[in-house]
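Honest question from a wet-lab person: if I give you the sequences of every part of a complex, can you actually get the arrangement of the whole thing, not just the pieces? Trying it with mine:
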Amino acid sequence: MRKVVEGSYAIADAVRCCSPDVISVYPITPQTHIVEHISQFVAEGKLDCEYINVESEFSSLSSLIGASAAGARTYTSTTSQGLALMFEVLFNASGMRLPIVMTTVNRALSAPLSIWNDQQDAMAAREAGWIQIYAENVQEAIDLTPQLFKISEDPKILTPSMACMDGFILTHVYEPVEFLDESKVKEFLPPYRPEYVLDPKNPKTFGAFADPSWFTEFKYQQYRAMERSLKKIEEVSKEFEEVFGRGYGGLIEAYSMDDAQVALVTMGSLVGTVKEAIDDLRREGVKVGLVKIRSYRPFPEEALKRALKDANVIAVIEKDVSMGYESALLTDLKGAFYNSPIRTPIIGFAVGLGGRDIGIKQIREIVEKASKVSDAGIEDEFEIFDVKPECL
Amino acid sequence: MKEIRFHGRGGQGAVTAAELIAIAAFEDEKYSQAFPAFGVERRGAPVMAFARIADEPIRIRSQIYEPDYVIVQDVTLLDVVDVTSGLKPEGKIIINTDREAKDLKLQTEAKVIAIDATRIALEKLGRPIVNTTMLGAFCGATGEVSLDSVNKAILSRFSGALGEKNLAAIKTAYEGVRL
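Yes, you can. This is the full assembly:
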């Protein structure tokens, strides 16, 4: 069924189709509508699950840790300060290898208080051991939901995951979306049947004390599982395409990259605007392309090398800053290329912080700056973009 | 692609109007997108919403700076917001006012359309909520969405007598601006 609905409603419906056993979510702008719609489905009997009301995000994820360890399929959603409040629990979920799925609505972190979109919240949690995949549009965020359950719940992966979607820009937009067919989701996503569960008849312990003779091995196994998820994400993406007819290219998507001299790299809802800008620039003869990152964790190093190897200059555009050292994706990409034969200059732009709007004009300006690098070399490796001197 | 900017005050339903246009355009088998200017909305404060209509899937997600059409739900906004900002010269601006278009003295080459939507809404709905009435005016003045589809969009949101009253308001506004 195809319909114009609000992004948040579409996500709630996708969650409903995945039949989670336990959901625990705490409302926070701009994620609130997702919570409202899910709880409405539960109240109306359209979603048969245990819906736990909690007093904070810390408790929402904590309660899911218990539920997931007991063998339940579990879902939550949060944003910004809520994700920050979950920080301790994020590491517990991944360390205990619990395949919890979370829609992470991306929003700036305080202070100053901002309810608007950037991706600082999820980027700050990049070491938390969660798979992070960023959606370009509402449809991709819908389609990611069953895919993430399937990836996370795989016995060889058992790692929690986040479907990241830009706050307001995707949660509050009305646009046509294709709803998931519940029976097809059932076929695509089998019930969660974990091998190890909390069971009074067969006692086990999760996340117990590990002294120095054990801790490293836990982290090693988590690291390897995350590595294995690279292949799993691609497989599940293909399988989803076979069943539902919509594909997104797995870890990354290369757009207009044949013969591209300037390669832009970005993720999330900015991708659509960048694609539009690229089509305009191509018509004017500017050889520019885009590599859209879908999977940020695990980081698709090899796929990025293949996609970006022929560019003259790479410009990373991202909605986060690492105070003290540029922005996270820029640093990751430079790190990925350092020991490779690729010597392409890489520059980065922190854009759209706290909801600053980014349009085609701004993308063109970035392409112009990047083009200068390919002629004259790097002047500024990293820039916080669109700073108003009069406000300083 | 056609881009539409809505100016209203918090509580006047500008965001709902944008959503209804997106639904109506979809009924017309076009692609559409609607979203609010995400602010900390309070009742009475100036707010904006946006809509796009196109024959192709819509990928751009920035706000709208050079609209084809502007809809102003409250004439008092003219004193506080630059409602014609970026409006295309060949575009149209539709304003809820009891004054004549020429008396508004707007600085724009675009066509200015005045409609007394508050009066129509009071008559047909019994309340001065003009967002749906303004949709009828938009439909009549631009033809970008069909009246049938606007009516369908309305009935998907408002049922029963309220739906019927809204349709009556829309029809009056639609006929009022059609030349």
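Two things worth pointing out. Chain A has 13 helices and 15 strands. Chain A has a mean pLDDT of 97.
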